[in-house]
Structure formats: structure tokens, C-alpha cells
């Protein structure tokens, strides 16, 4: 630069030849040329530039044209920004220092974001006047930008991890969106579940348009972003991006022209887990530093996404284990119920027979035991079949079968049962042309399960069974006009142990594996089963199996007649279905002492009166159970001592209770429409039945089941199978306890009525007193306002005609009137506190204290009181009353620190005896501790009115507020040593009462 300055033709400038330059100027030029720190000297009104070699790197492409040129021209793009700073130094001569000064420079062919630390000082000429400026420069762009980028990486590190990859990408995008200077926009893509497409899972300031679609196929080359190359592990730089995307970024809002497409790396570098697109700041070059930043960024993003993917895998594994556990729990719950109900009906009659001298089972008891044993046998066989299917050990044997004849016979066995329920049964099984190979026993289970299932959920209309062949496939369809299945439940109908929650059926009975077994048996035949259903419109199950034998294992195909007939498989299904409810609740009523009982069907809306006419004296019991045999058994067991009404589900039981209040309810837990627990909750929610004794019967065994049943609010809980003597004894005990409770309740009601009458009278008198107090306050306020108003008029309008003594008297009258008004207001406030409803809630005492302090400062601007409020003071209290309390305590403290040199007030809390104690403390005049007990009585004052004005009611109000919150209040202090008021608050009672 020394050589360039020496060779420059300065005669063409306003400075003229070098020999004519001021000596001070020449000396300064020599100084900057001898320095290795970047310096520029601006001289004269034109501010012509002279700089050293170190400064060349700061102006880049502007060198060497900047030498001898005005800085106004050289740095035209930033002149508006720096001119004020230079003019101030030239005018005042006061040097300045500006760290990290942002400038927009065009020194590398683009508008560049740059930062400099500048120190400008004036340079005098030979006459001692300011001739120019010397600016010492230091570029700190890298430090500023790196600090910014490091902050972004730190935020990602501190962000932690989220449960799913999608949420992780969204969180990363939110962090990137706050750093648009370095990353104008970004997009995060992860593979779909099938791995064929990439889906946009997170974006930050992403421009809309086809360049960045929501979903992109990997086998379809994208015209802008090379997703496939990136998923192969390649980092791609996109240039001329502004041709496809209209987006501006950086500190100068320039068009974004470049972006990086980077793989989100997995532990295998050749198999990325996604793609990250990140735009480049148009005001910064994509140099090594910028590239390193992107490497660190995508590494952190990769780590977060990988961890989220690992977490999701572990979560799915845990969910799978939980699902297995849920299925297992459902299985044991269902099968326990299904086994225990018939066991109860077997053991109960047998125990009764053993207790009878004849020691024999006859009539209904014998039939009940037989039906229950058959049901147990069917349940056991179903479980064994299903377990063989699950274990792959179900050895089906397929033989050519006259499928239409077999199917029509199985479906037709339900005709009498279906028609007795008021339904139509349609069977269409025409002859088939081709042979069909099936396992006869398995086909029977398929047909019987589907038809009995249709009957269970159909209450009106028809059930249609059809068999047809077309295109080499035989289709069995079982269609009904029943309750149907909600759309959300359709995919799960064939799951093991799954039941449609809240489905209306003839019975709650069932293991939950019937349809799952059907599906598995159909698969054994190389077929499939599908379902079409809609709520209220019925369901259609379609079983499709191929004709012929080519699709079957050759070693399992046998000749006709090889497999022995399975017998009449429909018997167990028909016996069970015959004892379902018939579509509605059913009722049985017995007269006390009668040996027989009668079960009659009830309409869905209301129950028809039973035909048993005689009602013997005794308590009335409503029994609810969906198993008809169980209802008959309970009626027979309980009718010798009580009047029993039996119904088939919770809804019917609730209707029976509402028609006529019984003395006790005995209900099974698992029932259709409304189960026993829902029935119990409905009874407990009604005031009339809240105390009605309820005993629950359940097949769930174990201590946990009993405790769970009692926690629902049941008076007792019996596990099936139960002893008949135990049940009768428990019912008798609860009926006697209920009688005692009713007697005690009647006595308590009489006492409550007397107390209520007394409270009404007290309330009436209180209202009269309150009305009187308001009336008196109104009557007192009116003359007080007149006294105050006319006194003010006299002082303002007739002040000159009044002697000084008369003026003083009028001022005393006004002061007395104002004091009387304050006293009336305080008394009314205390009266309202006594009667106001206490509405407790969580409130911020610190915030209330700060607001009151600010109000006191505005009212007393001349008093610099230092108020210290502890943060985080929270209390369960009434907001309005606590505000009044703090207004009184802080106002008192403010008043009694009047003559203190450095007044200080504190609001805080301490822990004392395991309880939080709040306090307001000041360093004011204090008080004699002997009088501490009197502070909280109305109208008691320890200081004269002239010294500290007041009504003497404030602390009495504080005491009443604290007492209403169940706490206590006390004071500590000493003369001229400050005072402290402490108070506690009790925990709120349930329901928010005090």
C-alpha cells in the first residue's frame, strides 16, 4: 500500500501533490502504513480513503479502486448506516467504539452479511482543526456467525428426545424455524411404513410448491430434489434453486439460491433413515465453516431421529407385550365367567340335594345340572379346538361331503327356536355341481357358531342361511337383521377374546373366541371369511372355500365314510341359545313362601305383570342375571323368604327399581346392555336409591376382584360358584342392616328438620339485621355527604369572608365527616366478610402483594418505601378476602413506617411446625408486646389519631378473614423496632367448604 500511495497521481484529487500535504496528515498515513492492524484514514470533506495492507482483506473486491476514493462511493451500500457515526466524530471530535457492527458489503460479488468492531477517532490538521478520521477495524463476522450457529446446535442438544420420529422431526423443525438467518428453510423426510415413499414429517419456513411435496415416491425421479440419490448416502448441493422456489432469506431478504440435500444417517452409512433439505443463507458463502456447521447439524438431527426410531421400536414391542397381556387377561376373565356360571348351577342344586333327606336331584334341578354340564363340555371342547389351532396341531381330515344337505340340516335345527322368538329363518342350500371337501366336524362348528351368533344379536326380522357356488368357490352366507356392528369394531371382530363393547344381545355369555375359531377353521379349508355390517341394519358373514381337493394337503384327504359321524353337534348350541333372553329382559316373580316360580318375558320398554298373584309379607328383591338357568335357580333359592323379581340385564333391573323401590338388588357383573357395575353407578347417582343395598355376583375370583367390586360401591361381592346358604345369610344380613339404617335415618331426618327450622329463623333475623345495617349506612352517608359538600363550598366560595379560626373549624368538620365515612365503609366491609360465601382456590399471593404495593406507591409518590415480596407465595384461599387482608396489612405497614428513615416492608412465608406461615413485616414504629392480644379487636388503637389516622377495624377484619379460612393470626413487635403480623390457613375441606 505504501508503494501504491507513492505511485498514485494525487494531483488529480482535492488533496493535490504529496509535497503539499499537511504534516499531521503525512504522519498519520505513515502510522497506518506501519501497522499490521486493519486501519483506514478518511481525509477532508470528501473523506478520501487511505488504508494499509491489513485492511485489504476487509474490503475484498473494492481494492484497489477504494484508494483515494471517497468512502461515500466505495461503501455506497452502507453509507446511510455509517454516515451518522462518522459525522458525529467529525463534528465533536469525540472518538467512539462499536463492537460487532453489522454491515452489508458487496466485496465478493454478492450482498454479504458482515460484522466489524470499529473504533473511530478524529485526526487534526496542522492548524489544530479536525481534518479527517482514523478508523481502526477488526472483522468479527466468523465469531458472530459461529456463536449463532453454536446456539442452534446447543438448542437441538438441549431439546432432548420425543417419543416418535414424527414428533422429533416436528420439534427439530420448530427449533430450525427460530434460526432462519442460517437456515432460511428446511424440510425433514422419513420413509413410509412400506419404504417406497418419503413423507414430509417436519418443515421450517418451507415454501409451498411442487419442489417440496408432502409425499414423494423413491422410484420416481424428482425434478428438483434428488431424494433417491440422497437415500443412497449422497450429499447433494442444489444450485439455482430460485428458478424453482420463490423464497427470500438472510438478514437482507435476498433470494435463496442454494440448498443442501443431506441423508439422515443410520448406524449403517449406506442405509439412511431419511432426508434433510436445508437452504443456504444467501448472505453467506457456503465455505468450509458453513459446511462444517451443516455436518454437525445433520449429525445431531440423525442422532435424534435414530433415538426416536429406537424408542418407537421399543414402544411397539411394549405395546405388543401389553396387547398379549390384555388378550390373556380378557381370556381368563371371559373363560372364568363362562366356567363359573355353569359350575354354580351344577354345585348349587347338588348341595341342595345333599342337604335334603332324599339326597336326589329331580325335575328342574336335574335338567339345570344337565344343561350346565353340556355347556361346560362345549366350552372345554371349543378351548381345546382353539388351542390345537394355535399350536398348529388341529389335524383336519377332509372328505367329499354333501354340503347343501349338511348345512341345511344344521341351520334347520334352529327353526323352532328362531320362530318361537318371533323371527323368520330362511334356508337356501340348492344342490352343487362339483364336489366339496370339508372336515365334517369343523364345518358343523362353523355353521353352528355363525347361526347361533346371528340369533343372539337379532331381535326382529329374519336370519337367512344360503349356500351357493360360482367360479370354483362355494360361499356360505349367514345374514341377519340384528343390531349390527359399528364400523370401528369391524376390523377386530375376528380377534381372539374381542367383544364389541356395549353391543345389545340376548346374553352376555360367550368366551370371545367363537368367531376367531370360525376364521381359523375356514383357513384350514384354504378359504376365507369376511363380514359386512352396519349398526341397526344387521350383519352378513360370508365363508368362501374352494371346490375340489387340489388346494388341500394330500395326506389329509380321505375317502368317503372314513371319518366317523360326530353325532348331533347342534344340541349343546340349541340348549344354550334356548336359555338366552329371547331378545328382551325377562322377569320372574315369586311369592314369599311359595315353592314354585314363574318366568315371563318382558317388553323392551316396560315389564308385563307376572301371573304369580299372591305376595306374602317380606322384603322385595330384584335379581339381575343374563343366564336364564341362573335366574331360575336364584328365584327358587330366595323365594321361600322374600318376594323376588328376576330380570335379564341391568337396564331391566333399573326399570324395575324405578317402578317400585325394592329392599335389595342382587346383580351379576357381566350382563348385556347395562352390566352390574353400570347398574350400581346408576343406583348410587339417584337420591332415592343411593343407600339401596346392592350385592354383586361375579365370576372374577381373587382378593383384587373382591376389593375392586367393593370399591365400586357395592355393599357385598360374591364369587361364583357360591354356597346357597352363604348367599341367603348375606342377603338377610344386609336387609337387617338396611332396616336399622332406615330407622336411624328417620330419627336423623326429624332432628335435621328441627335444626333446619331453627336455621331458617336465624337466617331470617340475619337478613333483617343486614337490611337494617344497609339502611342505616345509607341514612348515615347522606347527611355526611351533605356536611362534607357544604363545608367544601364554604371553604371555596366564602374563604375570604371567613376568619382563619372559622376556616380551621370547617376543615375539622370535613375531616371528621371523611373519618366517619371511612368508619362506615370498614364496618360494612367487616359485615360482608362475615356473611360472604367462601370460594377457595389456588391463588398467587405474591402477585396480589406486588399489585397492592404498586397502588400504594402511586398514592404516596413522595415516600420511597422498599417493598420486598417473596416469589412463589401460593395459597388455597378466597381471592377477594385475601386481597382485602393484604390491603389492610400492607396499608398498615406503609402507614406505620411513615417516620422511618429507610422504610422497608416484607411479604413472605416460613415453615413452622410442618405448616406454612405467612407474614407481613416492617421496620416502623412497632408496639408494646403486652398489647399484642388487643390489636385484633375492633376499634382498638395503640397510637393516637393525630399520629396515625385510621378506623381501628382493619386488623379485626384481618382476624375474621383468617378465622374463616380455619387459620389463626398473631402479632409480634417492640416499640420503635418494627412489627410483624403472622397468619396461617387451613387446608380446604372437600367440596371447597371452610
Give a description of the structure.
The structure is a single chain. With 994 residues, this protein is of the alpha+beta class. It has 24 helices and 34 strands. Helix 13 (440-456) runs parallel beside helix 15 (570-578) and helix 21 (804-835) packs parallel to helix 24 (954-964). The protein starts with a helix and ends in an 11-residue tail after the last strand. The model is unreliable at 582-617 and 989-994 (pLDDT under 50).
Short description:
The protein contains 24 helices and 34 strands. The chain is of the alpha+beta class and 994 residues long. The strands form 8 sheets. A 7-stranded mixed beta sheet has the order 22-21-24-23-25-26-27, sandwiched between helices. The protein has a 6-stranded antiparallel beta sheet with strand order 8-7-6-13-12-9.
Spell out the key features of this protein:
disordered C terminus, alpha+beta, 994 residues, Beta-Lactamase, Heat Shock Protein 90, 6 domains, 20% strand, 6-stranded antiparallel sheet, single chain
Percentage of β-strand residues: 15-25%
Task: Kindly give the count of domains.
Answer: 6
Structural class determined from secondary elements: alpha+beta
- From the coordinates shown, what is the CATH architecture of the largest domain? 2-Layer Sandwich
**CATH structural class of the largest domain:** Alpha Beta
Helicity level: 40-55%
Shape: flat
In total, how many beta strands? 34
Radius of gyration: 47 Å
Determine the N-to-C terminus distance. Answer: 88 Å
What is the CATH superfamily of the largest domain? Histidine kinase-like ATPase, C-terminal domain
Number of helical runs?
A: 24
* Biggest beta sheet attributes: 7 strands, mixed
Mean pLDDT: 81
CATH topology of the largest domain: Heat Shock Protein 90
Strand arrangement, largest sheet? 22-21-24-23-25-26-27
Low-confidence stretches: 582-617, 989-994
- What oligomeric state do these chains adopt? single chain
Amino acid at each position: 500500500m505504501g508503494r501504491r500511495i507513492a505511485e498514485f497521481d494525487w494531483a488529480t484529487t482535492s488533496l493535490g501533490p504529496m509535497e503539499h500535504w499537511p504534516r499531521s496528515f503525512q504522519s498519520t498515513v505513515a502510522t497506518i502504513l506501519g501497522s499490521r492492524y486493519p486501519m483506514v484514514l478518511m481525509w477532508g470533506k470528501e473523506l478520501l480513503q487511505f488504508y494499509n495492507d491489513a485492511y485489504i482483506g476487509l474490503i475484498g473486491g473494492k481494492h484497489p479502486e477504494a484508494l483515494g476514493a471517497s468512502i461515500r462511493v466505495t461503501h455506497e451500500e452502507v453509507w446511510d448506516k455509517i454516515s451518522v457515526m462518522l459525522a458525529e466524530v467529525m463534528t465533536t471530535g469525540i472518538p467512539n467504539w462499536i463492537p460487532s457492527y453489522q454491515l452489508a458489503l458487496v466485496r465478493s460479488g454478492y450482498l454479504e452479511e458482515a460484522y466489524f468492531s470499529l473504533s473511530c477517532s478524529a485526526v487534526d490538521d496542522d492548524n489544530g482543526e479536525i481534518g479527517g478520521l482514523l478508523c481502526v477495524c477488526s472483522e468479527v463476522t466468523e465469531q458472530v456467525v459461529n456463536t449463532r450457529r453454536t446456539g442452534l446446535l446447543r438448542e437441538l442438544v438441549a431439546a432432548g428426545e420425543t417419543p416418535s420420529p414424527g414428533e422429533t422431526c416436528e420439534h427439530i423443525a420448530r427449533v430450525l424455524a427460530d434460526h432462519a438467518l442460517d437456515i432460511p428453510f428446511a424440510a425433514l423426510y422419513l420413509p413410509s411404513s412400506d419404504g417406497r415413499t418419503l413423507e414430509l414429517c417436519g418443515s421450517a419456513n418451507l415454501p409451498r410448491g411442487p419442489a417440496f411435496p408432502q409425499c414423494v415416491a423413491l422410484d420416481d425421479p424428482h425434478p428438483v430434489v434428488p431424494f433417491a440419490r440422497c437415500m443412497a448416502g449422497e450429499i447433494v448441493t442444489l444450485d439455482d434453486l430460485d428458478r424453482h422456489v420463490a423464497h427470500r432469506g438472510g438478514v437482507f431478504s435476498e433470494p435463496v439460491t442454494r440448498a443442501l440435500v443431506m441423508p439422515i444417517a443410520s448406524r449403517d452409512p449406506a442405509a439412511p433413515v431419511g432426508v434433510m433439505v436445508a437452504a443456504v443463507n444467501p448472505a453467506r458463502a457456503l465455505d468450509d465453516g458453513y459446511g462444517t456447521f451443516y455436518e454437525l447439524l445433520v449429525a445431531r438431527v440423525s442422532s435424534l431421529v435414530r433415538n426416536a426410531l429406537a424408542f418407537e421400536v421399543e414402544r411397539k414391542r411394549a405395546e405388543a407385550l401389553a396387547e398379549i397381556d390384555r388378550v390373556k387377561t380378557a381370556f381368563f376373565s371371559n373363560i372364568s365367567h363362562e366356567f363359573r356360571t355353569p359350575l354354580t348351577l351344577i354345585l348349587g342344586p347338588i348341595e341342595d340335594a345333599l342337604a335334603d333327606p332324599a339326597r336326589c336331584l329331580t325335575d328342574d334341578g336335574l335338567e339345570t345340572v344337565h344343561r350346565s354340564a353340556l355347556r361346560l363340555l362345549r366350552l372345554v371342547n371349543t378351548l381345546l379346538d382353539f388351542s390345537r389351532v394355535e399350536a398348529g396341531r388341529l389335524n383336519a381330515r377332509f372328505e367329499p361331503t354333501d354340503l347343501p344337505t349338511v348345512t341345511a340340516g344344521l341351520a334347520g335345527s334352529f327353526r323352532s327356536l328362531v320362530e318361537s322368538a318371533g323371527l323368520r329363518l330362511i334356508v337356501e342350500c340348492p344342490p352343487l355341481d362339483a364336489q366339496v371337501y370339508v372336515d365334517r366336524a369343523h364345518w358343523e362348528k362353523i355353521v353352528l357358531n355363525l347361526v347361533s351368533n346371528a340369533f343372539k344379536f337379532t331381535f326382529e326380522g329374519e336370519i337367512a342361511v344360503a349356500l351357493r357356488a360360482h367360479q370354483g368357490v362355494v360361499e356360505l352366507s349367514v345374514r341377519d337383521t340384528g343390531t349390527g356392528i359399528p364400523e370401528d369394531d369391524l376390523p377386530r371382530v375376528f380377534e381372539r377374546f374381542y367383544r364389541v363393547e356395549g353391543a345389545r344381545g340376548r346374553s352376555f355369555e360367550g368366551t370371545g373366541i367363537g368367531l376367531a375359531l370360525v376364521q381359523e377353521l375356514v383357513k384350514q379349508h384354504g378359504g376365507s371369511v369376511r363380514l359386512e355390517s352396519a349398526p341397526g341394519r344387521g350383519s352378513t358373514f360370508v365363508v368362501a372355500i374352494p371346490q375340489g381337493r387340489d388346494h388341500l394337503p394330500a395326506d389329509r384327504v380321505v375317502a368317503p365314510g372314513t371319518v366317523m359321524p360326530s353325532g348331533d353337534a347342534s344340541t349343546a348350541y340349541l340348549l344354550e341359545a334356548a336359555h338366552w333372553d329371547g331378545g328382551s329382559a325377562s322377569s320372574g316373580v315369586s311369592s314369599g313362601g311359595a315353592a314354585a316360580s314363574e318366568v315371563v318375558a318382558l317388553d323392551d320398554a316396560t315389564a308385563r305383570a307376572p301371573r304369580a298373584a299372591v305376595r306374602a309379607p317380606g322384603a322385595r328383591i330384584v335379581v339381575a342375571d343374563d343366564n336364564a338357568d341362573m335366574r331360575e335357580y336364584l328365584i327358587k333359592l330366595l323365594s321361600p323368604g322374600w318376594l323376588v323379581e328376576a330380570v335379564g340385564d341391568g337396564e331391566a333391573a333399573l326399570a324395575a327399581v324405578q317402578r317400585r323401590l325394592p329392599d335389595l338388588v342382587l346383580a351379576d357383573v357381566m350382563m348385556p346392555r347395562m352390566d352390574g357395575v353400570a347398574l350400581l353407578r346408576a343406583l348410587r347417582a339417584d337420591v332415592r336409591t343411593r343407600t339401596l343395598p346392592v350385592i354383586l355376583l361375579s365370576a372374577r375370583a381373587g382378593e383384587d376382584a373382591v376389593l375392586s367390586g367393593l370399591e365400586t360401591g357395592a355393599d357385598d361381592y360374591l364369587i361364583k360358584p357360591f354356597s346357597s346358604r352363604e348367599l341367603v345369610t348375606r342377603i338377610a344380613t344386609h336387609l337387617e342392616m338396611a332396616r336399622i339404617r332406615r330407622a336411624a335415618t328417620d330419627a336423623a331426618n326429624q332432628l335435621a328438620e328441627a335444626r333446619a327450622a331453627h336455621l331458617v329463623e336465624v337466617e331470617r333475623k340475619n337478613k333483617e339485621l343486614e337490611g337494617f345495617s344497609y339502611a342505616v349506612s345509607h341514612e348515615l352517608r347522606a347527611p355526611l355527604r351533605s356536611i362534607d359538600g357544604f363545608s367544601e363550598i364554604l371553604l371555596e366560595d366564602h374563604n375570604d369572608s371567613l376568619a382563619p379560626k372559622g376556616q380551621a373549624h370547617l376543615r375539622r368538620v370535613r375531616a371528621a365527616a371523611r373519618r366517619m365515612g371511612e368508619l362506615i365503609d370498614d364496618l360494612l366491609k367487616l359485615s360482608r366478610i362475615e356473611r360472604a360465601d367462601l370460594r377457595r382456590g389456588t391463588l398467587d399471593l405474591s402477585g396480589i402483594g406486588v399489585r397492592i404495593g404498586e397502588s400504594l406507591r402511586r398514592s404516596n409518590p413522595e415516600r420511597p418505601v422498599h417493598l420486598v415480596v417473596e416469589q412463589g407465595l401460593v395459597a388455597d384461599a378466597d381471592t377477594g378476602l385475601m386481597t382485602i387482608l393484604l390491603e389492610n396489612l400492607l396499608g398498615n405497614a406503609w402507614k406505620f413506617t411513615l417516620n422511618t428513615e429507610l422504610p422497608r416492608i416484607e411479604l413472605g412465608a416460613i415453615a413452622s411446625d410442618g405448616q406454612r406461615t405467612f407474614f407481613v413485616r416492617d421496620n416502623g414504629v412497632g408496639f408494646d408486646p403486652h398489647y399484642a392480644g388487643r390489636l385484633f379487636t375492633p376499634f382498638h388503637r395503640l397510637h393516637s389519631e393525630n399520629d396515625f389516622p385510621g378506623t381501628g377495624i382493619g386488623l379485626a377484619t384481618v382476624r375474621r378473614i383468617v378465622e374463616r379460612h380455619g387459620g389463626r393470626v398473631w402479632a409480634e413487635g417492640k416499640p420503635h423496632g418494627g412489627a410483624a403480623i403472622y397468619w396461617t390457613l387451613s387446608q380446604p375441606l372437600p367440596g371447597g367448604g371452610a
